[in-house]
Amino acid sequence: MPLCTVTFIIEGSETRSVQVSRDMPLLEAARKAGVAIDAPCGGNGTCGKCRVRLLKGSLADDGPSRHIKPDDYAAGFRLACQSRVTGEAEALVPASALAYQTRIKIADLAVTRDREVYAAFRRELAGMGMGGDLGLEVLSFTLPPPDLGDAAADRERLLHKAAEYLAVDENALDLDLYALRKLPLLLRKSRFSLNCVIKSEGARKTILNVYDSAVSAGAENRAVPPPRMAGLAIDIGTTTVSMALIDLELGDIVAIGSAGNGQIRYGADVINRIIESGRPGGLERLHTAVTRECIEPLIERLCESAGINRDQIYRVAVAANTTMTHFFMGVPGEYIRLEPYIPAFFQSGALFARDLGLGVNPAAEVLVAPGIGSYVGGDITAGVFSSMIFKQTGPALLIDLGTNGELVFGSADFLMACACSAGPAFEGGDIGCGMRATDGAIEAVVIDGETMTPALTVVGADKPRGICGSGLIDLIAELFRAGIINAKGKFVREDAAERPRVVRDEYGLARYIAVFPEASGTGDEIALTEADIDNFIRAKGAIFSAVRTMLAAVDYPVDAIEAVFVAGGIGSGINMQSAIRIGMFPDLPLEKFHYIGNSSLMGAYAMVHSRQGAETVRDTARGITYLELSSHPGYMDEFVAACFLPHTDAALFAAGA
Amino acid sequence: MPLCTVTFIIEGSETRSVQVSRDMPLLEAARKAGVAIDAPCGGNGTCGKCRVRLLKGSLADDGPSRHIKPDDYAAGFRLACQSRVTGEAEALVPASALAYQTRIKIADLAVTRDREVYAAFRRELAGMGMGGDLGLEVLSFTLPPPDLGDAAADRERLLHKAAEYLAVDENALDLDLYALRKLPLLLRKSRFSLNCVIKSEGARKTILNVYDSAVSAGAENRAVPPPRMAGLAIDIGTTTVSMALIDLELGDIVAIGSAGNGQIRYGADVINRIIESGRPGGLERLHTAVTRECIEPLIERLCESAGINRDQIYRVAVAANTTMTHFFMGVPGEYIRLEPYIPAFFQSGALFARDLGLGVNPAAEVLVAPGIGSYVGGDITAGVFSSMIFKQTGPALLIDLGTNGELVFGSADFLMACACSAGPAFEGGDIGCGMRATDGAIEAVVIDGETMTPALTVVGADKPRGICGSGLIDLIAELFRAGIINAKGKFVREDAAERPRVVRDEYGLARYIAVFPEASGTGDEIALTEADIDNFIRAKGAIFSAVRTMLAAVDYPVDAIEAVFVAGGIGSGINMQSAIRIGMFPDLPLEKFHYIGNSSLMGAYAMVHSRQGAETVRDTARGITYLELSSHPGYMDEFVAACFLPHTDAALFAAGA
After folding, report:
1. Checking CA distances to A328, which of A80, B402, B626, B636 falls within 20 to 30 Å?
2. A174, A191, A323, A331: which to substitute to probe chain B, counting the most B Cβ within 10 Å?
3. The pTM is what?
4. Strand B466-467 to B441-447 pairing
5. Does the residue A106 lie in any domain?
6. Has residue A114 been placed in a domain?
7. How large is the ipTM?
8. What are phi and psi of A304, to 5 degrees?
9. How far apart are CA B602 and CA B380, in angstroms?
């Protein structure tokens, strides 16, 4: 078969060429070339994100479509997933079509509240006796230098001294391979004075790292910084990976950041990624996309930001949904999506960084938050811990709005969890102008009922570039409140009255323009179509019907809920009133709602910060009952009933209406 | 600096080009190109092994030399180490100039005695209660298949069943990451029937591997072979790496083989390699040369030969000299060669295959035989074990003739060890026609005193290609006995009487021709020069003077020695009479001598075969006193006195003379 050369010119970046066989989809050719074109729909032609521009050559496709208007088509725009290679071709990949795994964002701790939020959580943990129990310590030793009469090897020289100091048997001490490899040169450089990081496990102690402890008093007079010990909390979301670097001694967050999950180019949802993982080499691609391409650069940047070396990270905790956990560990997850939906594991055994090739200290322990179901993973069990729902005296609800929606209901007495296919709408997926809650995202909206003009709050106070989850909830609630859309999510006002905010395209599809091109950060309008609203209503309906089904399963009325914890990276906050108004959350007094942000990352933090914390997450997970909604009688009826604004049974939202 | 392109045409193999800076030695350019030119002298121009032929371009050098005669020089022959790049050049690398790390040799167990030798050793171990104590077992489980009502994950499903069967707590069980990665697909393929390899350590049990246990009874009717458990013993010699694959259940050797140590291109002795290891990237090069380029292909071939998969190897033991042990583990060894000669370690801690990237089961324990001195390494402590010298009631001597010579003297009451710089003569290094004891090596010689004609025994009954250690001992003993050379190793007969066996070249250097070109397997004569004899006499003198010095240190007479164990891969045997005659071994009754072959590999075997054996090697090592000869008073005098045939004090060899 003849090969065709396809060249990708990446906007603002390099140009890459690849030789592929004729008829290969352009999206696949891009992946082969290592060009991460975004394809949240998994290459089905439905999301329109993989729009590129053909500069030279030709492609086989079906002509103009919903996503490529005739004018744009004539100008060379194509959907990469719907175009096939026919010969030599050159395509421009605009920044908008790139999966955002390279966009690492390190938060400035001086201006975010993260440090205080975590400090408060740490105090709460301390109150529970958690923290300071890591069994890691730094000790300084000055060894007698060797001579011909004292020719003990470096390792034995160090262990002998350490055993003497610690008053333990030398056989109970070990030196990790990584530290052993550093030792000979370090000893000569430091003139046999060194700091050691020592880990205790029962009676066994292992030296994990060695540092020069000498403070050179000579002309240079450079003080050798004391070796800090760091930990790393990782939340692997389907869309976003968030990480916090932690000073293990103080428990303080020293850097925090996030990046898009590089796997997104294989699909926005876990199902498309599981399918990809089953293809030859697919599991390795997905593993690499999240580890080497995403976690590794984030480690690099976080360490750089905090002035910490990778080898100073001695403890890592990972919280992620079941599929992400599998791919992180390089374990096949294909049976997660096939009935009866069985993951390879819920709990993971003893794991170390070197087992996974993670770029931290090779002897660092890697703790993985346990999952309890195919669609209720370690991110949720971590969230159960950090929300402290497992300590509540009265029943509480935890709602995690990730790429899927997961719910936990219970208290110190019982806990049950379920997942619903809310889809990625809350993270900006499946929505034409949707985006994550990063700079330029509209996160809050108030609409003037008369003029239909929106007042927008934008993350980073930039020009708006799209709408994130919290903004969508507001926008739809406001469109509904102002009577611009009806309970079915359709635009209801007639032609003239709608303009200029509501317009219809040549296919008759209506959309609400929140931002006109001239005011937009992208130069394109930011609008919400009926299709977007449809997607969103299904998402919120999935959440609400899951709440109803779960409460019904244990025969609790809605009023019994004493607190609702809402988690997820859908914005810096969420307007609970709006969420109730559209029938997403149950109609409870607003003071019962608490937005707790990324509870998964916070749970991972607890696992890094405290051995006891990690144990508690594991034990708590074992006590959670998993409710499989898809096979639960009544769930589909609940879902259908919830796919209205606010609900087919308006009485449920009497107070909020 | 302008770069020059140098091309190497490797005889019988591919052509490789490299761009290097002007003035780089051609040998270095070859290394950069990945062409493994042999340089046992470390590139000092003394061994003559790196002879290549310049085909195009020119090189800077000093003209004809001892190794390159004027005719050969005119024909383009050059020493790669003594030639510098001056511009574009193309050189032919003959097979004779290639380091032999690619020459893997797998012994045919049907025709070697290895299997019986090891079986006898195993019986001896069994008598000491060693063996059968590995804590590894294979168990079969059939799991209940999951359904929507029983959605436990694969790992927990397996651990639950195993815990039930073994009547242990589920928390005391773990599944190794490697096995976890295999599990999901295997369970579906095997219809939930599987064999597990389980390792016990105290109360903890870990499943290291999983296999399909189903014997398909259908149309294909292929029987699934039961999962064998294998171990691997590795002896890393400076010159040769030997390995034995072991059936862990039976203790039987299932494959045995060897290959040249790929590090040889960085020097024949450890000193040159340590120097290379200190250069940028050098340690990694040396580590890779022995692991990826030598051990890995040997594992591949041994497994292939025995029909065992790499992942079935659960236990590895390595015995090697101190420097080789450092490079195998990727630990800097630079201080071994600098006074006061301190290695990074003698004992190594807990190590697993995945720590070292060794291509066997990632969870396989890697045991490293402990060293006791910079030049008395784990190969010797392993040999102390396998020779059973540590159980002797009367004093015995262990002499290991490797690339260096190491000696151990003692009994169950005490043990002392020393190393002497015997050099690589016993393995064919430093000798013009020297070679390892492989096919074509002359391993035994008897000379007719009258005609000077030798009767030769050749390994593999091939045409002779060179002389190995045992052949050299015989040849020199015979030359001396026949009065062809004198006590100083010089040819003594006058011109006419010498021919045709003894000839002198244009520089006046005499040589004894053992094989004329027409009878040789290489087409070149096989001859021994006075320089070769010099090198050999220094080697044997080093051994004998070490024996004398060590005995003197503990005030034992030679007669007190009850047994002499001679180890090393210098031939299938060694003529002890010849060795005594040249003053290499003390003059004791022949029945006291025992040739025990590769005692290092056999010690590694014991460590693989028995936990108790590995413990004993470690404990025994701790009890050995190291005698540093180089700083020992009297050693130099002993050495000088021993550099004669047989010795300056002929009375020492009154019986054997």
Report:
1. A80
2. A331
3. 0.87
4. parallel
5. no
6. no
7. 0.87
8. -60, -45
9. 11
